């Protein structure tokens, strides 16, 4: 009998890029030391997915727990102590993940402030895109060494949902120490029944989810449902499964889920297009005919060579209109402020750094951040 008994096998939602969240309870032994017992099967799933041409970003807890396993028992009390444990354990955590892969693992430490500030958000986004393009496996954690508020929350479930939107993931996979969502807490209620599919997370679901989970982690099923709500707002579906069930994890690589599927009301692309269409624009970028045709017909990014000029004032990260001098036909997120766009207009991408003294990438508006209106 498997740990996921009771959940019906179903097809995993189709995906090309996913975020896999792994909690502390799956990475620590009963005594608190870091262990790869369950991580090995999860890493095998990542490896098989990459062999199939997919991309996976890992959001991994466990730094504080790993540090606690290295420190003397009396150390680590209080906030400063936990921050020190995070710094101590972070290298062990990354070494654990790197030990499972031949591809390089890239450590990325984020705080919620990095994701609230628009410029830092875009910088993180650009870095993660480049890491994926380089064929690395990004392993993301909160920067617990300095992030006071985030360390108090200790909520990597919600961080994973934010990262999923950040990297334009198609799917958020949450590896739990329980099979999925139940009608009640299965640890205390013998009548609790597994829930295979949730069309939309409701207050009733949140109420039945309870509070914190295991002693090693600080989140429970409630934070996983909160993460699913955030992911759904970006058009990203979430699946919760038992990361301790090797057979369950193995089936994921074959496209089979034994757990809970939490659906999004609209597709990722539809959610992003809706947001771009309805967010107030900060200005306008004017393009030539060639660039207009490339954006309309070929799904291209907007490069500086096709830019004629910029109207109004807008900052890096603002939503802007895009037009050809006669018609506004698109909207997108500008990688450069209005003044910078004017300076690099008509330039080749290799000239950006020389003109500005820095570069945020070759695209003025990346195709993933752009919506073209129907003609």
Sequence-ordered SSE layout with sheet pairings:
Layout: E1 10-11, E2 17-22, H1 39-51, E3 55-60, H2 63-68, H3 78-98, E4 105-110, H4 112-116, H5 118-133, E5 137-142, H6 148-153, H7 156-166, E6 171-176, E7 197-198, H8 203-209, H9 221-233, E8 237-242, H10 246-252, E9 256-257, E10 259-262, H11 268-278, E11 284-287, H12 289-297, E12 307-311, E13 319-323, E14 328-333, H13 338-344, H14 352-356, E15 370-372
Parallel strand pairs: 2-3, 2-6, 3-5, 4-5, 6-8, 7-10, 11-13
Antiparallel strand pairs: 1-9, 8-10, 11-12, 13-14, 14-15
Helix pairs in contact: 1-10, 7-9, 8-9
Multimeric state: single chain
Distance between the termini: 57 Å
Question: What's the CATH architecture of the largest domain?
Answer: 3-Layer(aba) Sandwich
Q: What percentage of residues falls in helices of 4 or more residues?
A: 25-40%
CATH class of the largest domain: Alpha Beta
Radius of gyration: 22 Å
The backbone outline, from C-alpha atoms, is globular
Per the CATH scheme, the topology name of the largest domain is Carbamate kinase
Count of distinct strands: 15
- What's the main sheet like? 8 strands, mixed
Description:
By secondary structure, the chain is α/β, with parallel strands linked by helices. It folds into two domains: 10-271, Carbamate kinase (3-Layer(aba) Sandwich); 279-372, Archaeosine Trna-guanine Transglycosylase, Chain: A, domain 4 (Roll). It contains 14 helices and 15 strands. The chain has helices at residues 39-51, 63-68, 78-98, 112-116, 118-133, 148-153, 156-166, 203-209, 221-233, 246-252, 268-278, 289-297, 338-344, 352-356; strands at 10-11, 17-22, 55-60, 105-110, 137-142, 171-176, 197-198, 237-242, 256-257, 259-262, 284-287, 307-311, 319-323, 328-333, 370-372. The strands form three sheets. An eight-stranded mixed beta sheet has the order 4-5-3-2-6-8-10-7, with helices on both faces. A hairpin with a 4-residue loop joins strand 13 and strand 14 (328-333). Helix 1 (39-51) packs parallel to helix 10 (246-252) and helix 7 (156-166) packs parallel to helix 9. The radius of gyration is 22 Å and the shape is globular. The N and C termini lie far apart (57 Å). Mean pLDDT is 88; it is low at 150-154 and 213-219. One of its GO terms (molecular function) is glutamate 5-kinase activity. This is Glutamate 5-kinase. Its EC number is 2.7.2.11. InterPro entries: AceGlu_kinase-like_sf, Asp/Glu/Uridylate_kinase, G5K_ProB, Glu/AcGlu_kinase, Glu_5kinase, Glu_5kinase/COase_Synthase, Glutamate_5-kinase_CS, PUA.
């Amino acid at each position: 009998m498997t740990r996921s008994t009771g959940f019906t096998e179903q097809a995993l939602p189709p995906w090309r890029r996913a975020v896999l969240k792994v909690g502390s309870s799956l990475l620590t032994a009963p005594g608190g030391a870091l262990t790869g017992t369950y991580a090995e099967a999860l890493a095998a799933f990542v490896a098989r997915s990459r062999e199939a041409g997919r991309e996976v970003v890992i959001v991994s807890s466990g730094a504080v727990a790993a540090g606690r396993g290295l420190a003397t028992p009396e150390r680590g009390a209080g906030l400063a102590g936990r921050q020190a444990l995070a710094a101590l354990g972070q290298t062990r955590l990354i070494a654990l993940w790197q030990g499972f892969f031949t591809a390089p693992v890239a450590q990325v430490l984020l705080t919620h402030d990095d994701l609230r500030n628009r410029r830092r958000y875009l910088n993180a986004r650009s870095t993660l895109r480049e890491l994926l393009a380089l064929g690395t496996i990004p392993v993301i954690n909160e920067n617990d060494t300095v992030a006071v508020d985030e360390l108090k929350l200790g909520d990597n479930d919600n961080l994973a949902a934010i990262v999923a939107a950040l990297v334009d993931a198609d799917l958020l996979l949450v590896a739990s120490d329980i099979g999925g969502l139940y009608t009640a807490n299965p640890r205390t209620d013998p009548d609790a029944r597994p829930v295979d599919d949730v069309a939309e997370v409701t207050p009733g679901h949140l109420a039945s989810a309870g509070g914190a989970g295991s002693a090693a982690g600080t989140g429970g099923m409630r934070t996983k449902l909160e993460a699913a709500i955030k992911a759904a707002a970006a058009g990203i579906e979430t699946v919760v499964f038992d990361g301790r069930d090797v057979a369950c994890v193995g089936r994921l690589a074959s496209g089979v889920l034994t757990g809970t599927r939490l659906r999004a009301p609209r597709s990722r692309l539809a959610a992003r297009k809706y947001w771009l269409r309805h967010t107030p624009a900060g200005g306008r970028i004017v393009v030539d005919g060639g660039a207009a045709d490339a954006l309309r017909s070929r799904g291209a990014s907007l490069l500086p060579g096709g830019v004629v000029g910029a109207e109004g004032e807008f900052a890096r990260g603002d939503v802007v209109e895009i037009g050809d001098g006669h018609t506004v036909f698109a909207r997108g997120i500008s990688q450069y402020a209005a003044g910078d766009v004017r300076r690099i207009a008509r330039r080749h991408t290799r000239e950006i750094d020389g003109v500005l003294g820095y570069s945020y990438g070759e695209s003025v508006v990346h195709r993933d951040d752009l919506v073209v209106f129907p003609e």
